[in-house]
Amino acid sequence: MAHLAHYREAHPLPLVITHYVNLICMVLLILSGFYIHYPMFGGFMGICRGVHIFCGIVLVLNCIIRIILAFVVDSAPANGTRQVQKDYKTWLPQKDNRHQGMAWVKFYLFLKKDHPLAGKFGVPQKLAYLALPILILFMALTGFALWEVTSGWGICVAFTTAVGGLMHVRIIHYFMMFVFIIFIIIHVYMAMAEGGKPLMQLMFARKEHGGLTYDINTHNISGEDRSI
Question: What integer is the mean pLDDT of 83-99?
Fold first, then answer.
């Protein structure tokens, strides 16, 4: 089956940058978090704590910047088109994705061979990406509640009291880490299953790839681009 073309308009550079800042921070947070929880060898606790706190703050700021960019940056709401609109519309329900929820689930579970040709993000991806800022901000709250510099903030004190003390906050913070690990694994799988090598080339090298073209006004295939 032919796939939709991959154009830079679907992933503008500012959004690609915030995407990889998120990824780098999450990986460093996971690695440093494991060490802080279980220091396998000595001499790195101070460095790991510093990296952990720094990446946590950057992750929160990057999340806020990404939300703002969604209302500022124009992007293609589907692959296969250079037509653009405000990026936030990509995250909301689209006519291009209407009635495709089960079709995407079947595709990801290997019950359907071909994925739907529609919006840039499938329905499960939309739900996952919409949940991510909430997860990041909640994870940050648990982290700030544990950090002695910010643990005295009113919201941190209220949260710590509500969950029953710092030990419970530590447990929540630790197990939330596995939520992010699972999210990264699922995200990589979804991206590779849907876009594969052409998507990776676009995201890493900004290299476009030809394929079927898509019209966001008619919500249908409009032709094929063989020029790339």
Answer: 83
Can you tell me which residue has the tokens 């709250």? Answer: 141
Quick check: 202 and 209 in contact, CB under 8 A? yes
- Read off the pLDDT of residues 121-152 as tens digits, 9 standing for 90 and up: 777 778 888 899 999 999 999 999 999 999 99
37 φ, ψ to 5°?
Answer: -75, -35
For 74, the 3-state DSSP assignment is strand
Segment holding 215, helix H or strand E: strand 211-215
| SS3 (DSSP) at 14 | helix
Q: How far apart are CA 120 and CA 9, in angstroms?
A: 11
Distance CA 169, CA 174 (A): 9
Q: How many Cα atoms are found within 13 Å in the side-chain-facing hemisphere of 77?
A: 20
Q: Report the largest interatomic distance among the alpha carbons of the chain, rounded to a whole angstrom.
A: 61
pTM (two decimals): 0.87
Over residues 164-216, the pLDDT tens digits come to 999 999 999 999 999 999 988 888 887 777 767 888 888 888 999 998 898 88
Q: What local confidence, expressed as pLDDT, does residue 117 receive?
A: 65
Q: Residue 111 has which token pair?
A: 């019950």
Burial bucket for residue 66 (CB in 10 Å: 0-12, 13-18, 19+): buried
Q: How many residues does the chain have?
A: 228
Give the residues across from 1 on adjacent strands: none
